[in-house]
Amino acid sequence: MGNKHIPDIIIGRLPQYLRSLQRMGREGRQVTSSQELGERLGISAAQIRKDLSQFGEFGKQGSGYQIDYLVEQLQNILHVNKEWDVAVVGAGDIGSAVARYKGFINRGFRVAMIFDSDPRKIGTKIGDYTVLDSQMMKEIIQEAGIKMAMIAVPAEKAQEVANLLVEAGVKAILNYAPISITVTPPARVQYIDPSIHLQRMAYYME
Amino acid sequence: MGNKHIPDIIIGRLPQYLRSLQRMGREGRQVTSSQELGERLGISAAQIRKDLSQFGEFGKQGSGYQIDYLVEQLQNILHVNKEWDVAVVGAGDIGSAVARYKGFINRGFRVAMIFDSDPRKIGTKIGDYTVLDSQMMKEIIQEAGIKMAMIAVPAEKAQEVANLLVEAGVKAILNYAPISITVTPPARVQYIDPSIHLQRMAYYME
Fold first, then answer.
1. 3-state class of A134 per DSSP?
2. How far does chain A reach from its first CA to its final CA, in angstroms?
């Protein structure tokens, strides 16, 4: 791999491959093919082979991929062979659901803490977490060395929260607020906005 | 527009343009440029101009885009100049948060009903909604003519729920369960999986 530059669009597909392979593994499967993976994901087999070939040789012509091995390799490539601590900012409906979400298990992430600015929420419990005061956010995140965060605050507050997180050393932000935000590289931002997905599908409706 | 085929990757960017333009409108702005829009979204101005030119002439060289007009045109193109009723399946943390989510307002969607299979949840209230029995789902959705749905059930149940929804006439599914599902065209599926986004960013972490 080394310093080879790989387009982000390819990186974006690797987590999908990993998710499907992990599921096959849980189904007790040992070997798969780019064809099968492609059918599960709606991506062509050729695309999958081309994407994976960027990172090395993971399968043998005609004998397919060893699922366990490819899972391990993809986890290494994506740096999720460890668990990243993630901070959640905003303890409303979305933030609370995300903090309790079981879907991060075995994916490389663990919600470590949750913040809110509302005095009525600070100190209350959400699952196993005690809601922390977002005024203390920068210090606490810096101290804990947290590099990833999810923002689940109202749209008007999202940029301000993102700025604070980046100042605290956060490098990756998943933004649930329905607004575009900017962060200074090398920090990155990705979005969860259900309306964007629904609109993309509404285009095809009659 | 007519029957011209436009790549889905372009369709996928239109909701982002619309969201930014609507926000500018709320900020009291009247005119914008592809440059400004591009900076807000991290997309090149040339790309934005090229994408929009697929659908007609929306701005004049040098004088930019009328925000209100472009919002209206994009809403027409995406078929969100109306409100689509959306069914939510699964009244757990995620489903409940989605049902109460304020972010669908002015985006073209309205949560119309929520289903669950758990007898302890059926009949209880989530915000303004009474949780309906998912055994009745197919009939109720068919009767109501609902075409869009969000799935927030455990991964093992997602495909089965999707099949039922498609049989009931649903054409667009937003799947929150962390698993790939398949639907028979013309039905479509999109995904919300925070781990996928976090993994994509983890790749760039040291």
1. helix
2. 46
Of all residues in chain B, the one with the smallest CA distance to A16 is B196
Residue A18: band (very low, low, confident or very high) from pLDDT cuts 50, 70, 90: very high
> For chain A, how big is the Rg over CA atoms in Å?
19
Nearest C-alpha in B relative to A76: B203
User: Number of C-alpha atoms within 13 angstroms, CB side, residue A183?
Assistant: 26
Q: How far is it, in rounded angstroms, from Cα B157 to Cα A39?
A: 19
- Asked if B191 has any chain A CB less than 8 Å from its own CB, the reply is yes
Residues of chain B contacting A190 with CB distance shorter than 8 Å: 197-198, 200-201
DSSP state of A131: P
Instruction: Give the nearest partner residue to A174 out of B77, B179, B194, using CB atoms.
Output: B194
> Which letter, b or e, does each residue of A48-70 get, where b requires 16 or more Cβ atoms within 10 Å of its Cβ?
bbebbeebeebbeeeebbbbeeb
Shortest alpha-carbon distance between residue B195 and chain A (Å)? 6
pTM, two decimals, is 0.90
Q: For residue B8, what is the nearest residue in chain A, using CA coordinates?
A: A200
- B204 interfacial to chain A (CB closer than 8 Å): yes
- What span, in angstroms and rounded, lies between the C-alpha atoms of B172 and A201? 6
Pairing type for strands A84-89 and A148-151 reads parallel
- For residue B11, CA distances in Å to A191, B6, B86 come to 17, 7, 20
Q: What string of pLDDT tens digits covers the 206 residues of chain B?
A: 455 789 998 999 999 999 999 999 999 999 999 999 999 888 899 999 999 999 988 877 677 899 999 999 999 999 999 999 999 999 999 999 999 998 898 999 999 999 999 999 999 999 999 999 999 999 999 999 999 999 999 999 999 999 999 999 999 999 999 888 999 999 999 999 999 999 999 999 98
C-alpha–C-alpha distance, residues A13 and A7, integer Å: 11
State the pLDDT at residue A1: 46
